[in-house]
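Researcher: We plan to redesign the surface later, but first we want a full-length starting point. Tokens attached.
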């Protein structure tokens, strides 16, 4: 019981201590109260000034003060931990958790473990046993053939990777 309560409180503390910035589906959290804040895009790169630190995000690659820190995908959260006297600033990546399901034709689909409530994802058999139809919110999004991979991102982006 104690762990459940403290975990919920910890999640509330994070949202209170950080300001949310979005970068094309990646949520970036920066500490509140930093001087020198600014956010702008140049071409396909987000520049986010947070105090003395500069976060850049370009095509999912995330940099802190021009040092590559990792890749972020749609639905992921990146948290800036500012520098202290004893340590350098760093980024923490929190990944979206996915559930994998295998269809009888050998194809696989990945959906978020906790999809948004407004997202409805369905897979329907067709007369052809090697083909399934994918529906997202009631709209036909395409066919899935044997050994294909389908990835549904938290914002509703659907990718079908064909296996040749």
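Model: Full-length starting sequence:
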């Amino acid at each position: 019981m104690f762990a459940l309560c403290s975990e919920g409180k910890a999640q509330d503390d994070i949202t209170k201590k950080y300001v949310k910035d979005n970068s094309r589906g990646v949520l970036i959290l920066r500490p509140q109260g930093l001087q020198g804040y600014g956010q702008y895009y140049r071409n396909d790169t987000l520049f986010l000034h947070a105090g003395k630190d500069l976060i850049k995000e370009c095509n999912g690659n995330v940099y802190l003060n021009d040092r590559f820190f990792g890749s972020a995908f749609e639905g992921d959260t990146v948290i800036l931990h500012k520098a202290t006297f004893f340590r350098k600033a760093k980024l923490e990546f929190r990944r979206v958790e996915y559930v994998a399901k295998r269809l009888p034709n050998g194809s696989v689909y990945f959906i978020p473990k906790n999809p948004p409530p407004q997202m409805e994802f369905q897979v329907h058999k067709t007369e052809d046993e090697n083909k399934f139809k994918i529906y997202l919110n009631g709209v036909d999004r395409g066919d899935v053939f044997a050994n294909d991979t389908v990835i549904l991102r938290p914002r509703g982006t659907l990718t079908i990777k064909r296996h040749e």
